[in-house]
Amino acid sequence: MQASSYSIEEYHSLPDLPGVYKYFNSENELIYVGKAKSLKKRVSSYFVKSLGLNYKTKRMVKEIRKIEITIVDNEFDALLLENNLIKKTQPKYNILLKDDKTYPYLLLTNEPFPRIYQTRKLIPGKGNFFGPFASVKAMNNVLDLIRNIFTVRTCRLDLSPSKIKEQKYKVCLEYHLGNCLGPCEGLQSEADYLVEIEQAKNILKGNMTIAKAYFKKQMQEAAENLAFEKAHYFKNKLELLEKYHAKSLITTPTITNLDVFGIETDEKTAYVNYLKIKNGSVIITKTVELRKKLDESEAELLLTAIIRLRDQFNSDAQEIIANIPLEEEFEGLNFAVPKIGDKKKLIDLSLKNARYYKKEKLLASGDVSDKKFRVLKQLQSDLSLKDMPDHIECFDNSNIQGTNPVASMVCFLNGKPAVKEYRHYHIKTVEGPNDFASMTEVVGRRYRRIIEEEKPLPKLIVIDGGKGQLSSAVEALKELDIYGQVPIIGIAKRLEEIYFPEDQFPLHIDKKSESLRLIQRIRDEAHRFAITFHRQVRSKNAFGSILTDIDGIGDNTAEKLLSKFKSLKKIREATLEEISSIVGNDKAEKVYNALKEKKSG
């Protein structure tokens, strides 16, 4: 495309056609790139004083000395060209995405017996690149799935037909582990190998249903041919794929290819979250920050983010949804703002991520000179709490192998453990190992007593566990009619996810965040306190039974001895006079003689 050049006095001579315009200053430096449905009308608007431009725009207009335009076929083409030019030149008055990361890709090589491996270098001609992935963890999850399901080689050998024919290689450990079928020795044909590669490509593209259909068909055909071992092999592969898909599935699989955007703004900045949905699963999530340069509207900022993020992550989705409408319609963009249903839930999820990112940024840039409360302020921001959580209580259950069920509550004041406020609980109303019912009991007992003693409720309750334990604790609060008066969350151990009552989507706090580390520390302390108490109870019960097996010794006597001597070993080592001082001469002689006999026996 050939660019045409104009002086600022010639703006009225521009054509009434769609295209891209570029502004240059007196040093011939590009300072702004814009798109227009009508170049003449759009550029003229900058130089007509009656429009009342804002201060930033007026400052830019004063710098303009030359205009260049490029005519295109339609406004959508202008949008794409504008994006490419901004990305390449980064003019100072254009909106820029704050993102300097180099993202990882998975490369499917174009060599014989193709390999799949991670890379950050896009080298044309090496093969097909899939990505970019917004996180290394997400990429590794996909790569691990492929290597668990398919027998794709990991070696770097040159497996050209001539090398295999010359028998230059020997199979390695991967072959003996069953992770490779030995193409290096000619034990697997390239045609069979490429069948698996084709299915691996479907997974890399997010087409899980095609890969699942392949394994299902293979399983059924093997079963029909009475090859039951082979059928079981494909069944295991199918289950692995379905398990992975189920983990990532957050909405109906009928939503096959969709881009979701949520935008949150303040005076100077916009925060945009992007979710790429394939077959009901989020396969990419990314939040970016855009700094306003010329007081752009929310719709302008959103459109900028849509074009650049779709370009960055190679999206071909025909459908786009967001929380606000665009100011203009563009050919090739099927855009909507859903109000109900699964798509509205996806918008809510995207906004949740954008708002969390905004809070993190504002907190990081704020005054954190008060170190004592910095983490608590961050936790307040992360969890959207009304008050700073300077009083936190955390509950945990312990019933190893279903015996001696107990629970613990630890208390943190101003982010520090308040050991005097810790509490142990014997489970009284629940029979057998039932964590949910036990949680309801101990939370109910704790806050019933707090209410009776007219003591203040905590600013935050933390439950060690996921949705089940959290729901059980909420039930106790509802019975006491204090649900809603104090915030309550659950923390699931496996992925360190934060759950809120009646919210199906967990919150993922940055793993490096100080606030998450505080929650983990409180959770771990509650767990340690519960485990320690459980061991004491179990040990006490075991030692107590040895004492109560002695004729004439009951629970009270055993309790007195254990309280004094702390362990059975120390009771055995005690003199008759020391034992007599606790339980009297008669019972002391029975205990002393019985333990001596057991020790000698």
TrEMBL record:
Look up the domain of life of the source. Bacteria
The protein depicted here goes by the name UvrABC system protein C
* Family statement drawn from the similarity comment of this UniProt entry: Belongs to the UvrC family.
Q: Where is the GIY-YIG domain?
A: 16-95
The UniProt record lists the UvrC family homology region profile domain at 333-477
State the Gene Ontology BP annotations.
Answer: nucleotide-excision repair; SOS response
Its ancestry begins with: Bacteria, Pseudomonadati, Bacteroidota, Cytophagia, Cytophagales
Subcellular localization is given as: Cytoplasm
Q: Which Pfam families match?
A: GIY-YIG, HHH_5, UvrC_RNaseH, UvrC_RNaseH_dom
Subunit structure of this entry?
Answer: Interacts with UvrB in an incision complex.
Q: What does this protein do?
A: The UvrABC repair system catalyzes the recognition and processing of DNA lesions. UvrC both incises the 5' and 3' sides of the lesion. The N-terminal half is responsible for the 3' incision and the C-terminal half is responsible for the 5' incision.
